[in-house]
Request: fold
Amino acid sequence: KKIRIRNKIAKLYADFFKNYKGISFQEIEKGNLSTFKDYSIIIDPDILGIDRDMVAIALEKENIITKKYFYPPVHLQKAYSSYNNTGLDATEKLSSRVLSLPIYCSLTDKTIEKICMALEKVFDNKNKIKERFENG
Reply:
């Protein structure tokens, strides 16, 4: 039941994001089922016009908490600093673009709508948000 609920929530998010260039997410191959323990989007700042950190802070101001679960990547963490960690540019790029949105079984349709409306507000005001960040 929990997996079905999480997949429903993931579909609602995916339906919302299909209208936005610069947002992608992990594809689930046909015939497979994800548990959607997390719902992570990948933000391409060059296409969307705003980066992951700006989106996260703007959403926090709307009382929506997001997570950067994959940042920093493991090879850049202190425990692994003595290893040769070169040549992982793709990992570093991806980890700086991933943002995990709220997803849990008791997440209501009303709350999902609130999250999507907040994201829409952020995307519609990205130039103002970006300007505020650049000007301190």
